[in-house]
Amino acid sequence: MRWSFNGPRLWICVLAFCSTCTAQAGPQLRAPTEENDTYCFGCPGDTHIGPHPRSAAELVQLARSHSPLLRQAIEGTYPPKALELGRVWSGRLHEFFFAVRASARPRIVLDDQPGPQMQSLEGTDLWYAIAYIERLGALHDFHYQLEAKNFGGSSYNMVAFSDLSYPVGGAVRGQISAKQTVASKIYDGVKNDYWVYIPAGYDPKTPAALMVFLDGGNFLARQGGSRILDAIDNLIYLKKIPMMLLVFLDPGKIAESARGPALDRAREFAESRHSTLDQTIRSIQEDAVTDTYPRLLRDELLPEIAAHYHLRKDGYSHAIAGISSGGLAAFNAGWQLPDAFSRVLCGVSSFTSVQWKTGFAGTEGGQDYPDKVLQEQHRNIRVWLQGGSADIESDQFGSWALNNVRLANALKLKSYDFHFSFGKGGHGPEQVEAQFPAEMTWLWRDYDPSGAKQVFEIEPAEKTKPPFRVAITNRDAN
Questions:
Q1: 191-198 vs 244-253, strand pairing mode
Q2: If phi over 0 gives left and psi between -120 and 50 gives alpha, with beta otherwise, what is residue 153?
Q3: Which of 43-52, 193-202, 283-292, 358-367 has the lowest mean pLDDT?
């Protein structure tokens, strides 16, 4: 499965789609300034872009002062159709601004609780409200009610970022290298693009830790893009994580003219699943439960990075992260090659049968990992696992949500050093993004740059807790 940040630098489109099928859309963002805080849930293409967007702070200030410019600001910030549907909001830290068109005063419901009273803009059908969101670093939800009917909202994809996801005073931005390409011999000439993040203060004389982000091009845009880079700047500056280089690796691609037995089989596979060749190559690399893609990372990518930067060579100092199919690939890399990648971050991961018995992945699929953890030799890895109850249910590949719960329980029962974060969100990066400072701090806790090894053990507090249990909340199960 795939999600992506799509489009120009000044906005986010978060989509979730399979290598073979489409799924649900997530929030999209438009902000041409440093205030990347205006969102539209489910808006396709560029239809969510307002002509003159304002930041959340500006909208809140205009609303509190009852400014006559508020109408112009709302209409300039949000697209007309999304405003009518009630799918837009703006927020920074605790303060959020909501606006909607309605024939009468709607009620806003926040996290299943009544929200503030909607205020009218005289002479219009516009309504607005300012809300205080208490919990940061988490996903929230809202919707409207009018005449006893619900409409609009965010489907638990409204992120309240913590302060560590915004630029912190004193933190200096790291730099992103020019795009590079690794041409794989393992994959018969498939080419993966990548970029390297070089933190402020990096000293080429001192070897640095390393973290690989799969589908990495999605994380590069600061303006209207991911908050990952701002968080990394802050965490390194505050010494919550070690000095490290980040490698943002994109899925592999092949030229239409390229030929070879493996590539011809990939084309046949793409046709059989009605997917593009690029989607198929990504799935072959990331959804396969083999050591092939991990070997590309260890034996082809890392030597290229090491030729230009001074890297730590120990797996103790290497981490890997991914979302969706990239989440499965990150876990698979840690599982197959724990001496190369000992710290793993995976979100809404595709522990499902996307590449089960396909000819590219042998007889195992992502859905087998809970049983592999229970039955196979213990790996020395530390894992942050994230899932959401509204993730995909596929009649072809299985349940994303339940298989993440199964894997969490397997890790728990086998005393792995793991953390499981399970929210109400769908198949997108929002919860991973919301919790990213906490995730990174947890993954790199107790890191000792003078050492090269550590036996990862289940945390004492986690050891005392029971396994995770499932409750059905969306229908009668009697």
A1: antiparallel
A2: left
A3: 43-52
